[in-house]
Structure formats: C-alpha cells, structure tokens
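pasting for ref
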Amino acid sequence: MRLHKIEKGRYVIYLGKEWGDNQIRFEFSREHNFGLGFKIGREERELQFSYYFWRLFNVWVTFENKRLKYLDDLTLLGFSWQTGEHAIHAQIMDYSEMDSSKPSKLNIYWNYRDWLFGRSIYSESRHQEVDKVEMILPEGSYSMNMDFYTSYWHRPRSPFTRSMKRVEMTPGKPVPIPGKGESAWDCGEDATHSMTMSVDGRSVQELVEHFKKSTIARREKYGGKNWLPEVKES
C-alpha cells in the first residue's frame, strides 16, 4: 500500500503493485460537489466508481486489471451525475474516442436545472468608480482605478436571482509579474493589466491589499522571494 499526493488537497492510495496486473486506487479530495459516477475505459484497462459528497470529500475508486476485456467495438462507457454541473451525462463512445468522424453511439447530456428553470441570463449594474488609489510595491507605486458593480444571474422560470458585488481593479500601468515558465513563450516577464474579484464586504484598502498580496505571492512562486521587474532603459 502506498499514499501519493497528486496536488494540494488531493491524494491517491495504491493497493497492490503500481505497475502489476492488478491494482486498486482510492483517490480523495475536498471539493464543493455532490454526485455519483461510473466509467469503464478499455484503453486504460480500468473500472472506476466516483462518489462526490458535498463540501466534505470526493472519492474515486478505480479497479485496474490488464487482462480485462470489454465490448470489442467500444472504448468508453460512462455515467455521471454532479451538482457542480447540475447535469446527468451518459455516454458510449466508439473505439476511436479521439476521432471526431466517429460519433458516440450514445451521448445523453441533460442539464435538469436549465430544463426546469431555463438557461441563466447574466446582467450587471454599475455603482461607482474610485480613482487614484495607491498600491505600494517594492519597485514603486501604482495608481489604481476601481470600478464597482453588481452581477446578476436569473433564470426565466425561477423566482430567485443570484447576485454578487464585484470590483474590477485596473492599475494605471501594468503590474509586472514573472511568467510561469511552462513553455518557451512563458519564460520572460509578464504583467497583470487588471483584476476582478468579489467585494465580500471589504473596504477599498482591503481590496487593494488583496491585489498586492496576490501579486507578491505570484512573484515568489514563479520568480523567487526577491523577484523584481527588469529596469527598462529609457
């Protein structure tokens, strides 16, 4: 038995030899979801059950056997229901899953919330703009423009409207940040041109501080603790 951490908040427990003929994997994480899932994949030689328990834990149980044989002309059988998508999805794929010229033999996707209440319609109302709010970073000061507004989501056959107070923060000049370095074009210096976030009852200074902390965290993660933007010659 072996415990392996995939990413923050997500782990895998292996029972049996990882590269042997038989293996059982338990994956678990914490996400805001609820539902059930079932999948058979011949290419991966595995049978997977998934269980999502809202706000507590998600569990994926996978049984893998290299000698498993399924229907000759099928690659994937699957069924899933998740509250995150508010949908039921059932699918039987042809043997070449990635070949778009060979459509699914069965592909049912039913969003029951859209069916009951209609598709969500987005609208927004603007409240105020706050100009020339200063954000101090090690290399200097940035003047911020803050545009406050409320977003609304309403469904035609629903008596309820969901709303969220938000702010779009735009610095007078882009705030330099290091690239992620995941590809050749992403190795140099990048920049944040604006940031949108939920207000959540915070003051103007608290929102500016959030922008600042987010920028510093990005710099430390991809450029190191003392990362500073390049000084450009005039």
